[in-house]
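Q: Here's a chain of 447 amino acids. Please give me its 3D structure as tokens.
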Amino acid sequence: MQTSDSVANPGFDAHNPPDPKLIDSCVHCGFCLSTCPSYRVIGKEMDSPRGRIYLMDGINEGEIPLNAATVQHFDSCLGCLACVTTCPSGVQYDKLIGATRPQVERKEPRSLPQKLLRQFIFSVFPYPNRMRALLRPLGLYQKSGLQKLVRSLKFLDAIAPQLSAMEAILPEIPARAFTDSIPALIPALGEKRYRVGMLLGCVQRLFNPDVNDATVRVLTANGCEVVVPQVQGCCGALSHHQGQEEEAKQFARRMIDTFADTGVDAILINASGCGHTMKEYSHLLQDDPNYRTKAEAFVRKVKDVQEFLAEVGLTAPLSPLQDQPLTLVYQDACHMLHGQKISVQPRQLLRKIPGVQLREPVDAALCCGSAGIYNILQPEVANELGRQKVENLTNTRAEIIASANIGCYVQISRHLKLQDKSVPVLHPMQLLDYSIRGIRLKDLQLL
């Protein structure tokens, strides 16, 4: 039955709406509820995968309007894909929410503040040089003491909670953020086994460039010649995850062109959100006759760096990171665990470091709340998830937290500070790099 609202707003348009066949594969069993982070925090059926699928079906049938009331439930989804892993019926919720978000962006106008915030994010975050233009004033803001004053007064929380959330996750700006220091070609140490390309990442190259340096050193130490295209843009992850469909496609085409003539055996990623999106290029560009075949060939080469190293094997000798056994807890990034089905490989690599003992946290598959820009757009839910994640990680009593995604790194680091806990957060590539070079953690003053 169609309501007057649904007639006035007919819902999804004809361009790739959520597939009714995929919707019908949901048997409404509720297995997804316990693993859904938004449902666990908000506690409402419509903020669960099952509830959102019900909304998609109703909008498809013209029984429910696509309006602000329904959009809020789609917006509350983190896109963590835990439900995809959990679902016994194999419901492809990732495809359903992936089709819904562009519909929302096309059909439902945002409020002016929301529109301006999103426009700022999409105009700046995927462009490292634009981000760099903001870093100097932000650096002065941090060093002048103004940041401490703003945070202590908490006035942003009251007048602009999303702006406050953006300010709250701002990490310390390293001096090396202003230039890309990795050369275009880094030769393998010893016999060359592979020629690989590497993505620098928009945010990672600015806020945690040490991870990229460590990744290059680990790869070259294990017989890889590393190609780093100097003019490489965004992979499109942010746009893709937020329903900016055409923008995501443009980024995908440019990335494919960037690596087209490099002659690499693999294209390696050290941030899970980027890797997940780049593995989706063949789906994203399936209707593009000029890039469909190129995208399929490109995707076959894309691998997470941990996935690649576990597959080809480490050849460089590894040394202990400290005299006594070192306890680590590995944090499963959602787009690694659920999106790429990678969980064993990182642990295999870390266990190869002499003396490492891995501990597993409670609720390891629960999202940390970062989810791209979710911790900016939905700060209340994100903060609760960040609190839970840090509690679960630190309850293992591990000395180091290993995390392979820049968004998770920023989120976890922030919530460690909020809980007054001083556990270092390092990328697995950093730990392997220290082990290969014989560097002890005490020399880095990490422990």
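Q: Can you summarize the key feature?
A: The mean pLDDT is 93.
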